[in-house]
Inverse folding.
């Protein structure tokens, strides 16, 4: 049952008197639940409780943390239809998507459970001492990763499960040993509360300290800003817009003690269509991209917003085919009237620039909050000279750029901001010829795709989800996959520490049986 | 030969018309060489050249980078006495220290050479595709670490070799595949130029692209500020004061594209003396600490500035013994009159606080720029209430805090800012009793030492040199050891990329024979 209250650890609280509601974009009406915005007192309580919880939680064994993470997945699953229906009511996304995203979220939680149960992820490193070394003895040094402290997580509008309350940021932070305070997303606070209740139940069932998780409601920016500025908060995870992510990054950088912010933000995900791709498989790629551009109503961070080719009949034919195929796709609902409104405004702003040609624009009447897809095309020169054309239009919209030659194509890639992904369509031999294109693209992105579409982010260790700014605020980390845990940990060394007092990870007899770097060699054997 | 010019890659340049000299603190006179401050044009040229060099250097093999790094060490060694003498003339440090620090610097360079020649450090991860997976095919994903781009390095005053021109930051950045621009330290620009000449020679001999290394002179803050704000610069390494590091961090955070700054800054390195240590080994520890506090004239980032004990006869005896032993040590020269002046001012400011008792103060006349050591003592309550007493006094100075009880001791540790190190003196059984002290200390530091002194930073994989702010600007990284390379790299994924076009690190047949994570298992075998 949705109460609309905040979770301060296990306790539900509604002190502020300020309320808001979520919206059902499919029915174009408000949802029934009333959410209580977190007050300053509640923020303070949640951070205090998280700081206290950290003292215990940071030392809890990997096995216990694993039980907790698996229990979150189980409790989330146990919410069954109520959870799926709330998700659909607050996002306008269809049931199949809700089920798929829930599956992904459970998989993420269970992957982290497996990672911390095994234990080698803490990168244990041991250099044994040499007491009689000259001129000075060599001390015994042992290093491992330890949690950084309480983490604040800002969920995204477009992934109410996988990048929100118990999504990737929360799962990785809890796995690392950091308590989490979620700033609930105002568009799906009901979904958020249900998931939060699952996390709280799991924490209680597995004996976690109170305060290991809190969930605070907020419809504005105040609660988030206060959390990021609170001295008790030690890191921030964010998924959303450049404007939102940058604002939090700036607040965190101005603190007396600056803290790391990993914000995964905007991306237009350029696609380079080499001549061969458009000659041999023009129709195939037009079909694939019509699907990729409209997938999830274009509301993915990896949605392809730019397709770059070299001017000529093949590109013209591809562009026309793309236009025809995208017009055949039925429009679908966006997440929220605000997102729908922003889509329409930005789509018109970009389309209204000089020297823009419209390839396809769905203009038939649609239901409220449904997105009308659009494809435009511009010359390379025009794109280079007008930065408005570089803007991310969040929704089913894409720009086809017609370059004079491959030199102009490289110049365009070099001028792009940082991106999550870059894609190349073509033949192997052709890529070899265009090494400069691949090089330029590699410098601007976190992941490069050959003959595919950028949508669909596989959750696996080899996935990089992040990239040069503004794709993310720190390209040295990923938001997806087990390595995303590295955002919330710091190395810590013990020098000449008595074996009996060392954590299990670093003891001589390796009681946890983890893989360790011992005097430069990877091994699972004892010392 | 020292020319006083800047190195813009291989080219020497002196355009600004603004000059400065370095100072010999031992002789209390200026050194003869005239250094030319880098002009705006020269800064622009160096960054442009570094950006161009990056296009080639980022793809150079580990073997070739290894040759380059080893050649730097060889060329540095070949500079022989001229280099050692310049170091001594510009730092006032004795010959033994110069030789020791050179040895450490060569070791660092050669360690990184070994690391990149072997190659596994790039953390290759391969998840092979499953084309017939339902509901969607699983793509082939392969990830590795790639260099982030040109890095600007700010050397430290107190390590003219090991944390300056070709020191840890430069060696790790070059190893990562990042070109380096050094902002030469104004106190040892001659030493810096000689080392720079060694790097340039090594780059030429091993065929590195011009611009892989530049060295810019500057006596003020302008050159550094311009470098950090230049869009072509992608990361910053800094070793020095909190004021300097924070100023650069703030500039980097305010850029249109924020970039990572790893600044290793201040630390007072608290030492907790448990009752047993002072009962059984009071004299021994007094001797050890008199030595540690005055080592290198107290000019180490790990110098112990705070000793915390519980009030009583044992602590009083230890404090007296420490005072006596430190008075018996001959004063030594500081790095520069400015550092000497700052030491005297801060020492007097802290000593002049109310309720401070002087334990020992060397007051005999000393040579110019020689430091007069001092030990003061205060009650725990006084320390808690007066944050001036928390200040780092860079030089041979330490505060002994007398706590009422262990509760007050824990309260003091919790109130400290972030530190590089924390030390505990005592017996194993006693530490078990005082788990709260260890816990509190662990939360504030990057390295914890048992029955030792914090000075002496072993260069090995298990060393953590960094810590919660302000010990460093990002506690998730280290400035010392092979893992310091992680500051300058970002993960990058290839999706469904043709094997023939993948870098060697990720090809099916593992031509480099490196260790890789393949479908979750660490292995060196081919696919």
């Amino acid at each position: 049952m949705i109460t609309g209250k905040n979770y301060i650890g296990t306790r539900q609280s509604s002190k502020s008197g300020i309320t808001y509601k979520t919206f059902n974009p499919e029915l174009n009406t408000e949802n029934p639940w009333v959410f209580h915005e977190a007050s300053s007192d509640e923020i303070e309580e949640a951070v205090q409780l998280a700081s206290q919880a950290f003292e215990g939680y940071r030392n809890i064994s990997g096995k216990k943390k694993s039980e907790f993470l698996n229990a979150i997945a189980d409790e989330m699953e146990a919410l069954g239809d109520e959870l799926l229906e709330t998700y659909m009511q607050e996002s306008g996304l269809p049931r199949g998507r809700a089920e798929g995203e829930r599956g992904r979220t459970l998989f993420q939680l269970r992957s982290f459970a497996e990672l911390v149960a095994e234990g080698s992820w803490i990168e244990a490193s041991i250099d044994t001492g040499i007491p009689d070394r000259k001129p000075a003895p060599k001390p015994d040094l042992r290093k491992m990763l330890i949690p950084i402290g309480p983490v604040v997580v800002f969920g995204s509008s477009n992934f109410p499960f996988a990048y929100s309350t118990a999504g990737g940021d929360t799962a990785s932070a809890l796995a690392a040993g950091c308590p989490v305070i979620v700033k609930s997303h105002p568009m799906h606070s009901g979904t958020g509360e249900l998931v939060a209740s699952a996390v709280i139940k799991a924490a209680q069932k597995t004996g976690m300290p109170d305060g290991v998780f809190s969930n605070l409601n907020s419809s504005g920016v105040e609660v988030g800003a206060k959390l990021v500025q609170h001295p008790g908060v030690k890191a921030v995870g964010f998924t959303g817009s450049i404007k939102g992510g940058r604002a939090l990054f700036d607040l965190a950088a101005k603190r007396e003690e600056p803290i790391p912010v990993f914000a995964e933000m905007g991306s237009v995900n350029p696609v380079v269509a080499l001549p061969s791709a458009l000659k041999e498989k023009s129709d195939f790629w037009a079909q694939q991209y019509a699907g990729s551009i409209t997938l999830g109503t274009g509301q993915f961070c990896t949605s392809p917003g730019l397709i770059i080719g070299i001017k000529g009949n093949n590109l013209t034919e591809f562009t026309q085919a793309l236009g025809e195929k995208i017009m055949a796709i039925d429009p679908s609902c966006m997440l929220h009237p605000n997102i729908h409104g922003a889509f329409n405004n930005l789509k018109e702003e970009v389309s209204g620039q000089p020297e823009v040609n419209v390839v396809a624009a769905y203009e038939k009447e649609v239901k409220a909050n449904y997105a009308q897809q659009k494809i435009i095309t511009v010359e390379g020169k025009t794109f280079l000279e007008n930065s408005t054309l570089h803007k991310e239009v969040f929704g089913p919209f894409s720009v086809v750029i017609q370059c004079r030659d491959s030199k102009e194509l490289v110049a365009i890639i070099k001028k792009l901001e940082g991106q999550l992904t870059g894609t190349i369509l073509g033949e192997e031999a052709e890529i070899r010829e265009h090494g400069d294109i691949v090089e330029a693209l590699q410098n601007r992105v976190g992941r490069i795709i050959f003959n595919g579409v950028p949508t669909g982010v596989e959750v696996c260790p080899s996935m990089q989800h992040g990239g040069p700014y503004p794709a993310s605020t720190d390209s040295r980390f990923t938001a997806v996959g087990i390595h995303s845990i590295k955002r919330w940990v710091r190395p810590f060394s013990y020098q000449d520490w008595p074996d009996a007092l060392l954590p299990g990870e670093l003891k001589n007899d390796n009681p946890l049986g983890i893989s360790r770097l011992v005097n430069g060699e990877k091994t699972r054997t004892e010392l």
User: Anything to note?
Assistant: Chain B touches chain A through 72 residues (CB under 8 Å). Residues 26 and 92 of chain B are 5 Å apart (CA to CA). Residues 95-118 of chain B form the longest helix (24 residues). DSSP finds 16 helices and 23 strands in chain B.
